[in-house]
Amino acid sequence: MSDKLARTIQRFQTKIDSGSFYEAHQTIRTITNRYVKAKQYTEARDLLYQGATILTKNKEYASASDLINYLIQVYDEEELKITDKDAKYKLIELISNLPNDDPLLNDLANASISWSQKSSVCEKFGDSDLHHLFGVKLLSLLENDADNNGVAARDAEQKSKLFAIAELHLVLGTFESVPIYVSYLAKTAQINKDIDPGVFLSRAVINYAYLKNIKFVKEAQTLFFEKIKGYVGKEGEVIKSVEYFENYPLLNFIQLLVQTIQKEPLTNGQKFLKLYDHYKLLLKQREILAPVEYLGKLYFNLNLGSGQGGNMLANLMGGLFK
């Protein structure tokens, strides 16, 4: 850090110490503007990083979030890419230190993911580490809300929307995202013991299958079964590594689906069709017929059903990242 920048930070810290948070925030913005106009991007980034860190420590989260958002804008103007490890991990650090209920968290998610997509290494979905970060924070917010039984608890529609966003981030996240996502699904299955657990496992399996991420599909299934063993009752009959449960036909289907999509298209297209025909009515009842038909197209080039519904993960992404 240059002497000039160090002096600026010291003046900023003095304003913070005196309780002049708004003035301190505006001072950082004003000086950053000058650096950006002069294309002194390193100084601008350092100032925003230090300013946001100090504001966060003083629980001035709204001002800190604003400076983090400005930092992303500077990354864009400087044409820094997500491959710049220092830029990426400083951003992750700053966002990690914000509270999970920060009202600007979704805005920061959209801005940072959009920035990461400008790099060729992750232009399709954005950076997986960033997705993991936002998925974990949003899911933690949802779980804390449930634990509080709260005064400010969200209604069912709000919880559904929050979970949909958290779920998308976790599905597009890292391998470390899988146990966090699956653990939540298993807990939800345990709460709803009158529902076939396959309803919950199907979310992870179908979402990861959309991405052709078989490694994550298999891990999700393994972890889910480890977590539900205690409450599914009597173990089912195991045939060729599939555990059949008399009372959970959808759970049976999902296991068979996982096996089928791992095989070569030429040999397993017919197996998929038989599986689809046998469980079609059940899939329709559980409202996952269209996603399964999409997987038939994706993996085996099968044209099933009306073609309506399609890739719901892609549809959801289109609605969130604009």
UniProtKB/TrEMBL annotation:
GO biological process: post-translational protein targeting to endoplasmic reticulum membrane; protein insertion into ER membrane
InterPro entries (UniProt xref): GET4 (IPR007317), TPR-like_helical_dom_sf (IPR011990)
GO cellular component, one term: TRC complex
Domain of life the protein comes from: Eukaryota
Family: Belongs to the GET4 family.
Name of the molecule in the record: Golgi to ER traffic protein 4
